[in-house]
Protein: Glycoside hydrolase family 1 protein
Amino acid sequence: MDRILWGGATSASQYEGGFTDGKGMDTQDCRPYLPRTSDATTATRLLTKKLIEEAKDPSSDKFYPFRKGTKGYEYGLQDVDLFKELGLDLYRLSISWSRLYPTGEEEIPNEKGVEYYDKIIKKLHENGIKIFLTINHYAMPLAIVEKYRGWTNRKTIDLYMRFSKFVMAKWGDLIDFWLPFNEINAGYFSPFNGVSLVKNENKDYAYNDVFLSLHNQFVANAKTVKLGREMNLPGKFVAMVSCFCYYPLTPSPEDNLELVKDEQINQWYCMDILSRGEYPYYAKPFFKKHDVTFEISEEDRRLLKNNTVDIVSFSYYSSSICTVQENSSQTAGNLVVTTKNPYLKASEWGWQIDPIGLRNTLNKVYDRYQKPVIVAENGFGAHDKLDNGEIHDQYRIDYFKEHFDQIIKAKEEGVDVRAYMAWGIIDIVSAGSCEMDKRYGVIYVDADNEGHGSYKRYKKDSFEWYKNFINEQRSKN
Ligand code: BG6
Structure:
């Protein structure tokens, strides 16, 4: 069995900043800084027409978090030096769609944007760091949302294909893993992030819009896989969902049934389609119940069937609880709210820490899809304190140790785990709460919640720890 590659990950909108050089406005650029409210409040900020209008006003300064990121656009090459020093086997980055295609409709990509990715990708490659490329991590050009209603429109599939085709043609020889969409199931539980749906004030998203948008993403995913294979690209195609490791609150049959239902739609639905190539049996009754009426053509069904992914991957931060009981006490999780688990401690943001849940998830995912598995994201968001140039983040080291131990056990149990990527390997803006305070990196960036600071990089204690760990793992194989 192949050894596990140990890596780190970032996303363009949270890391790069660089709201310049022809970059177009994207959906994440319209998300303002809003301080965290309470633990149980889901941190997902919604995109409304009102916010979009405010974000277009150049004098407004409340939209800086994603526009500054942690200045990867400026410091990217130096950061690759740090990744090299850290000894990363693999680095996951995403391409900002609107940096290459400011409105999504240009025939030729923005030269400055191409130059930026070109130098980063080449430097990673020259330094022997394998590359996991997320083609689209949440953000999409705002113009596509305004003109076509984003993923609800099939036109968006063509625009995405223009973008993905360019990326594959330009960097195809250098990329080891291709991920067409980050956490594709976010389209369901976080429609703004996942499928860029704009919310009508006081009105819920329509299920038909959500599932139609997801269908169009599945088609774009399959077309990308098809094209990449026709181009004979050496890299493998990956699909990714966010996993929540569900437990029933009680042993009652009702709570257990609730778990099965929650798992199906929240966690497996998208992966069943991208990995098995078919809509699952539970989709039809679910659609009927929720008035989802869009039609799926035979041509689309064939495309999905013939272009499934090579590898399945997931993000995992914490486990969740399912229950039919109302009024159970709540806590936050990755883009969702769940019930508190008395057996687990939680981060300051309420995300419950559960390393065994990661091993449990690895086994379930492998068992269900029988394909190699990658942990595309995992990590610990915490307040870090810069103290005379040092950051003593023992809590993050403990989190890593406990989670890595479970990954290695899963591998020993026979799960074909191929890679692990620590999320936010360098500090970046939080996707959920648009703040700097929630840091995941082993590299600290001196920036605060208001976007002030030197943006200088510092190695945290976890940097040395991860470096030694990767070294040890490498020498064992
Ligand atoms: C995942 C996303 O859902 O969780 C990342 O793919 C995100 O973009 C990560 O940053 C952690 O969430 P947060 O809200 O702590 O940044």
Q: What stands out?
A: The chain has one domain: 5-476. Residues 168 and 205 are 33 Å apart (CA to CA).
